[in-house]
């Protein structure tokens, strides 16, 4: 009797291991195919301005769209999203200046990266939120490119990226946004200009940046690491729903909620240099999200 139990237990465990290996084989093959997929895209012709006003506008866009938050104030000292101890792999925002270890991009290369989430080889960039940035108006995109391409070269080499089995599984299941090119409509066209206004429509245009952490529904998400707090619901159904417009604006000035809670470093509000009018617009939009 004991021998039969051991026999069937061994068969069950063996079958389970075989199924897991088969599943991971599928995961590996699919993620490898997606990583190495070469996209055929038509790059829009977009004149890049060279004047100081557009440069200043581009810097503001880089600040509020998170470019400086990820790649660093010098666009070379990138944030490490998954270090060498991470079970996901090694992922760090790269040096995007023209210095040693950086990139040598033409205007069209910038359009390819920002509109399509693709590198010069037409393969998807890794963990680059192009799916959040691609919707910029032509005017804003041109200003952003004007700013980033003029930054001083910095010599800094980023360690090679890598993806581990858990990272592949999460990517396969749609729980880890490794490959932005998969999320983008590569045939989309974009408006020439989005005029600033204190209304929900303009707030929606600006609030796309928030979706990277707070999710596309703005309803928040569980903590992503032991030291990180849960990502809060910033829609009208969360605490923000009971705040006034001025409460929301003050949050970005002093880093405190109306209830007196100090925000964690994972929400670096002061690095987002929104104007008060931009914050009022975002507030109006978030209050429409149920």
SSE layout and pairing:
Layout lengths: L1 H35 L15 H13 L2 H5 L8 E3 L6 E4 L14 H10 L13 H4 L4 H12 L12 E2 L1 H8 L27 H8 L3 H4 L30 H10 L21 H11 L4
Antiparallel strand pairs: 1-2, 2-3
Can you walk through the features of this model?
With 290 residues, this protein is mostly helical. The protein folds into 2 domains: 52-183, no CATH class; 200-286, Orthogonal Bundle (Cytochrome Bc1 Complex, Chain D, domain 2). 41% of the residues lie in helices and 3% in strands. The protein contains 11 helices and 3 strands, in the order αααββαααβααααα. It has helices spanning 2-36, 52-64, 67-71, 107-116, 130-133, 138-149, 165-172, 200-207, 211-214, 245-254, 276-286; strands at residues 80-82, 89-92, 162-163. Strands 1-2-3 form a 3-stranded antiparallel β-sheet. It is globular and about 80 Å long. The termini are far apart. The mean pLDDT is 94.
Count of individual domains: 2
Can you write the helix and strand succession as a string? HHHEEHHHEHHHHH
- Side-by-side strand order of the widest sheet: 1-2-3
Count of separate DSSP helical elements: 11
Major sheet summary line: 3 strands, antiparallel
Strand content: under 5%
| Cα end-to-end separation | 60 Å
Mean pLDDT: 94
| Percentage of residues in helical conformation | 40-55%
**Dominant shape:** globular
Rg from alpha-carbon coordinates: 22 Å
Structural class: mainly alpha
Low-confidence stretches: none
Give the tally of β-strands. Answer: 3
């Amino acid at each position: 009797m004991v021998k039969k139990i051991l026999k069937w237990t061994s068969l069950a465990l063996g079958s389970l291991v075989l199924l897991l290996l088969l599943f991971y084989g599928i995961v590996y093959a699919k993620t490898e195919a997606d990583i190495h997929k070469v996209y055929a895209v038509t790059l829009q012709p977009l004149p890049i301005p060279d004047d100081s006003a557009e440069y200043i506008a581009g810097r503001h866009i880089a600040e509020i769209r998170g470019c400086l938050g990820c790649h660093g104030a010098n666009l070379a000292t990138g944030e490490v999203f998954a270090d060498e101890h991470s079970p996901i792999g090694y992922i760090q925002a790269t040096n995007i200046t023209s210095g040693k270890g950086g990139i040598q991009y033409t205007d069209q290369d910038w359009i390819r990266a920002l509109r399509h989430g693709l590198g010069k080889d037409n393969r998807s960039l890794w963990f680059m939120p192009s799916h959040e940035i691609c919707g910029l108006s032509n005017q804003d995109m041109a200003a952003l490119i004007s700013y980033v391409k003029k930054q001083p070269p910095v010599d800094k080499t980023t360690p090679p990226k890598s993806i581990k089995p858990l990272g592949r599984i999460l990517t396969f299941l749609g729980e880890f946004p490794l490959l932005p090119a998969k999320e983008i409509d590569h045939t989309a066209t974009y408006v020439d200009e989005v005029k600033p206004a204190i209304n929900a429509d303009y707030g929606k245009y600006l609030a796309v940046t928030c979706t990277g952490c707070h999710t596309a529904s703005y309803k928040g998400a569980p903590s992503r690491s032991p030291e990180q707090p849960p990502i809060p619901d910033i829609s009208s159904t969360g605490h923000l729903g009971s705040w006034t417009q001025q409460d929301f604006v003050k949050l970005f000035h002093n880093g405190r909620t109306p209830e007196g809670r100090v925000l964690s470093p994972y929400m670096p509000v002061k690095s987002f240099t929104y104007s008060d009018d931009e914050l009022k617009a975002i507030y109006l939009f978030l209050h429409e999200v149920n």
